[in-house]
Amino acid sequence: MLFQKIQNLLKSLSKGIFEREEVMSLALLTAVAGESIFLLGSPGVAKSLLARRLKFAFADGKAFEYLMHKFSTPDEIFGPISIKKLKDEDKYERITESYLPNANVVFLDEIWKAGAPIQNALLTILNEKIYRNGEQEMQVNIHALMSASNEIPEENEGVDALWDRFLVRYYLQEIRQAKNFLLMLTHTEDTYKDDLPIDQKIKTQDLLLWQKDIDQITLPAEVLNTIQVVKLNLEEYNTHPNTTSPLKISDRRWKKIARLLRASAFLHDRNAVNLMDCFVMAHALWQRPEQFDFIQKTVIESIQQHGYSLAVNLPALRQEIQDFEQEVYQETRIMHQTFVDELLTVEDEYVEAPNLDQYFGGCLLKKQEFLKLSRQENQSISVYDNLFNLTNRIYAKLGTSEFALEVMHNAQTINLQLKTKKTEKNTFINRKPHPLVADFWEKRSEKILHYLKSQQENMQQHHPTTLQHLTPHLFVPAVLADVVLHNWTDVEKQLKSLTLQVEKLVFYYKN
């Protein structure tokens, strides 16, 4: 089982490097997907350690590590010029053994200090997995390429093309949790030692076979819709007047992100990407660290609000049912206009009882107090004058007619009618539809109900809580599973509600 193998491998790789489990897992995922990763962080946050630990993941891992500086030459990265070749054969070729072109795991620190000749050669390696050594094209077999720096490049530095080639980007910070900080201080084992069992390591032949299998992983509707929603939200972000650093995300990057998600699904022994995999894309979309929180929030909200919703075409479905309902009501309801009495209010708060001021100094009552009265027993209410001053407290109850008031005064019952006004009111007279129309509606409702039922059955078959691959996830925090479940539950409720709405509509026009 591949999932179990990768889970054990990541556990061994992360041993002794505290609060670095996520970045280690992303580095391995990136390597399996055939992509590269960039680490941003100040000195001393274990960037080089992560690269050296990653080397242990591969059975035939040959590492190349180099700290760039402004005087770095291609000879130091790709190997020195072969004097013998140049002298005997007049060929300009490098001796690449023990240098980057012959390595499996590569770590380039302070990558942005590399000069143009080094950058150009790296672009070819990252794009085509080819190094041009003189006249020959040399196929490189790099499993993982990790770069790092304590800064990100500015737009005018001429490294935009190279910066874009690093698909996953991760901002490394110091250890935050006190418990892990103390564990780091007391940990004495050599983390630079390869202590991984050979059976945990990934063989080159297996890695090559995986590449073909990854391409066969499918992207279901909910995943494609989520990617599309994220893309549209980021495009909207770019047009906002307060946006100072627009996100430039090329079609090539989106294509590579899709393959990264496929690799995630493959390593979980699945034949399709799911919404949990989609959280990974947040690490491939930011260009400046301050953008990450916004992008992660955008991805989470897109999954929470639109994941399964768009997959079952809920917006269009709601609109179709709404149109159907409107058509039925237009055909079966005849509007009838009538005039009804309703209380006349003063200042939206008071109602007027004419002649009440003859007994109690005012004729205004609080509307809410009047509406609370009953015909069974007297209740205490307040009386106000025309200036809304309290003049008295009286005992009263509702009269026998509508909007009437009975008040006790000097052992006598006083009946008063409150002021009202005529209001136009629309009522409906129902009629049965023509049999041909009813037959047409029957077919239409059956079609809608069949679709609703099929979507509910499909969701039941893929209920996240019944799938082992929702949690645990190798590359995504388990807490994010609640986001996926929230969307699933919400869509399930909406499908049931829409089904009930259609069933009520059918019952209405039939009866």
Features:
511 residues; alpha/beta; 5-stranded parallel β-sheet; 4-stranded antiparallel β-sheet; 16 strands; 45% helix; 18% strand; elongated
Question: Helical region count?
Answer: 18
Helical coverage, percent range = 40-55%
**What is the rounded distance between the termini?**
58 Å
Total DSSP E strands = 16
- Any idea what the shape is? elongated
Mean pLDDT: 89
The amount of beta strand, in percent, is 15-25%
Strand order of the largest sheet: 2-3-6-1-7
Q: Structural class, from helix and strand content?
A: alpha/beta
The gyration radius over C-alpha positions equals 36 Å
- Main sheet: strands, sense, barrel: 5 strands, parallel
Unreliable stretches covering 5 or more consecutive residues? none
